[in-house]
Every structure is written in C-alpha cells, then in structure tokens.
Amino acid sequence: MPGTGLRVGVAFGGRSVEHDVSIITGLQAVEVLSERHRPLPIYISRTGSWYAGPELRDLAAYRSGQAPSAPEVSFDLHRGRLVPLAGGGSLLRGARRQAPIELDVIVLATHGTQGEDGCLQGALELACMPYVGPPVGAAAAAMDKIVTKAILGAAGLPVLEHMALRREGFERDPEGMVASIPRRFSLPVYVKPANLGSSVGVSRCVEASQLQEALQLCFELDRACVVEPAVEGGVEVNCAVLGRPGAQGRVSVCEQPVAGEGFLSFQDKYMGGGKGDGEGKQQPAAPASGAGGAKTAGDAGAAEGAKAAEGAKGPGMQSARRLIPAPIGEQATARVQDLARRAFEAFGCAGVARVDFLIDAAGEIYVNECNTIPGSFSFYLWEPAGLPFADLMDELIEIAFAEHAENGKTTTVFDTNLLAQRAGGAKV
Ligand SMILES: Nc1ncnc2c1ncn2[C@@H]1O[C@H](COP(=O)(O)OP(=O)(O)O)[C@@H](O)[C@H]1O
Ligand SMILES: [Mg+2]
Asked: Spelled out in words, what is the top-level CATH class assigned to the domain 7-133?
C-alpha cells in the first residue's frame, strides 16, 4: 500500500491502568505510519477526554501528567469523524469552531479497560468507521479471564483449571470464600482480577493466610476474579497471530519473557525488570529445552519503541528481558504456534493478537490468555518472521478495510411490513 497516504487516526491512552503503555504503542504506530501515510495522533486522557493533533507525537508532552496542549475533540458517533471542541469544550461558540476531521481508518493502540474490551470498538462500529483492532465480541471475551477459560476450553485448547469468584460472594462471606480455595487447589495459587491486565492486582499465594488479602485486592479492582493453580518451575512463552475470521492466521516467532523475580510483574513487563511485585518465590524462568539460538531482546512496549518512536525510551523505561526466539525447541514452538492460531480463531480476532502460554516443568503447555491489542502490536515478533513494522501496519489496515467491507455485506434491514399492518394506535 506504499504511497497511498491514508489519513490514519491512531488512538491511545484511555481510562485504563495500561494508559502509559498505550501511549508508547500509539506513538510507535504514529512514527512508523508516517513513512507511508498521514497519521493523526488521538490521545484519550485518563478521564476520557479526547485530543487530536500533531503536537501529541512528542512523548515528553505526557510526562508532566497534565492534559496535552492539542485541541480537544469529540468523536461523532454518527459520522465517524472528530469534531474539535473550541473555546474550552463548548460546541456553541461558533466563531472559533473548526472543521471536523475526517479519517480513513482508526488504529486502536489502546490497551486494557475501555480500549481493548469492546467499548471503543463498539463506538467505532456505531460510526461505521473502519478500525485496526479486534471486533467487539473478541475484545470483550478475551478481556475477561473467566470468559477466556470458557472459550478456550470449548475449543478444546488446554487451559488451567480455575475457580471464578465474585465480589458479592466475598462481601457476603469472606472467610467462607477464602476457605473454599485450599479445598479445591493445593497452594500455591494465583489470584487474578478477571478484567485487568499488565499483572495489576495479580497475587501468588503460597500460604492460606495470604488469600484474604489477595481477594480483597482483586475485588477492589474488579467485580470478579479467577483463582488457578500456580505453574511452578516452568516458562512463559508468547506468540502473535495476524489475520481475520474465516482465513488461516499467520503466526510470528515465539518469545520468552524473563521475570526478574517471581512472576512477571508490571515492572518486568515495562520497566526493565528489577524487583517484581509478586511473591518472588517462583524460580526465574529457565529454558525448557536447550534449543539455543535465542538472543535477549528489548521490551515490546519500551525499548523497541525507542527505535521506532524517537524519545520513547525515557527514564525508567529500559528494556525488559525476553528471549527471541523462545529457546523451547522446535516441537514445543510448533505446538505453541498451532495453539496460538487456534486461540485466535476461537475468539474471532481480527488484526494482530498475542497469545500467552504457561509451560510447566514437565513441558505441558497451557494457553493463559489472548491479548487482542498487544503491546507495540508485537512488531518485534514479526520483524524476525520477515515482516517489517511498516508492512505489518499496512497489513493491519488492509484487514481493517476487509473486515469493514465484510460487515457491510450483512443485512441489517428486515422489512416485515409490521407497522403498515398495525391499524389504529401505537399501543403494543
Ligand atoms: N497459573 C499461573 N502460574 C504461574 N504464573 C502465573 C499464573 N498465572 C499468572 N501467572 C504470572 O502472572 C503474570 C500475570 O498474569 P496474567 O494471567 O498474564 O494476567 P495479566 O492479564 O495481568 O497479564 C503472568 O505473566 C505470569 O508471570
Ligand atoms: Mg498476561
């Protein structure tokens, strides 16, 4: 698609604990898209205000925590365009009103709540706007760890057993809920909010005395949580998939993120390791087999970003450690790639998703989750697979247009003549 020069909105930020990571993904996309297109950064603040303008390309603009200086806009749900809110957000001050901004497509670089869970996707569907990102249903299902287990299980994919617990039950009988966990699983277990990401609110409980606090934390952050047995002494492996429903997905090389101490914390994922925020008693990930050939690479959200987005590698955002390709041997790699493709299909994903796995000490592979808007669009897993970042973005845009066209083929008008047949009043 070189030279087509599309007007591409890139949305990032949002009301999410992954707000900052999303800014990095967004600015990486803006940077690489500017090689072939006309990207427009669209920043969604922590409180949900939208801003658009070239000033938003500078990472430094976000460091102060203040709202950026770009014009505030609203998204027109009917026409799918951005409407500048002149004069401090009032549409009524006509004199300073600017023309609406028309876009060809919007790239969603939004991670987590409201951006990766179907909310924003729903708004774009209402506006008939082509977008790079998962369809509403895939986004909502993959964001929820309880629904994820159901979908993966129904597709015959290997998942860890789990308990699904709700806040209401905890409020009614906290001791009873705590006591139910060791009756079902032997410790250690992982306790995780059902709808968050980036390891926020995740606890590893080695002793029963830790369960109450872990549940309390989860239920402060979410209405539901999952509890599952800990995979001990194994490794984590991720694999990205590119495609759309109805077509065979393409798989990337696999990566093995390496935890600093214990499980992969937010710190490990985005801030170059250091002390994890977990229990830290789990052994650091070790290769399951010595296939070799892997090199330590930079982090999805940060270090590789510095390559693509000038200045994205700011203080505290050094590279997290990951091995690419994951040194797990050919057989396990092929199995992971096959499961990743099948998980992508089971959710009905479109665009790029990253499927994360846990592999135990015996080599048993479990699908852990599917990230439907992965950090940095997983470009660092596609480049070694022969797909440069700029080409990946073009493929994603092509998928967005293909999905939009496909959805447009669906009939939404059903002429029943019902109203004409109803004589008399409107009472039903
Ligand atoms: N059952 C488990 N066994 C071992 N480690 C786990 C387990 N569940 C989660 N973890 C660790 O916690 C991290 C975060 O959990 P995850 O399920 O990926 O949630 P999130 O959506 O927050 O990324 C994982 O990357 C892994 O390091
Ligand atoms: Mg995860």
From this structure: alpha beta
Number of Cα atoms under 13 Å in the Cβ half of residue 388:
7
Below-50 pLDDT ranges, the chain? 1-2, 89, 274-318
CATH number, span 141-158+233-407? 3.30.470.20
CB of 369 closer than 8 Å to CB of 142: yes
What is the model's pLDDT at position 428? 60
Q: How far is the CA of 236 from the centre of ligand 2 (A)?
A: 10
Q: Where are the domains of the chain?
A: 7-133, 141-158+233-407, 163-229
| Residue among 189, 195, 199, 235 whose CB has most ligand 1 atoms within 8 A, to mutate | 199
CATH superfamily assigned to domain 163-229: ATP-grasp fold, A domain (3.30.1490.20)
How many angstroms separate the CA atoms of 362 and 288, rounded? 9
Q: Is 18 in the pocket of ligand 1 (CB under 6 A)?
A: no
Mutate which of 203, 225, 263 for ligand 1 pocket (most atoms within 8 A of beta carbon): 263
Go through 291-319 and write b for each residue having 16 or more CB atoms within 10 A of its CB, e for each that does not. beebeebbbbbbbbbbbbbeebbeeebbb
Query: What confidence tens digit (pLDDT) does each residue in 17-67 have?
Result: 899 999 999 999 999 999 999 999 999 999 999 999 999 999 988 887 776
Q: How far is it, in rounded angstroms, from Cα 408 to Cα 426?
A: 32
Q: Does the Cβ of 159 fall within 6 Å of ligand 1?
A: no
Render pLDDT for 359-369 as a digit per residue (tens, 0 to 9): 999 999 999 99
Tell me the whole-structure pTM to 2 decimals.
Answer: 0.87
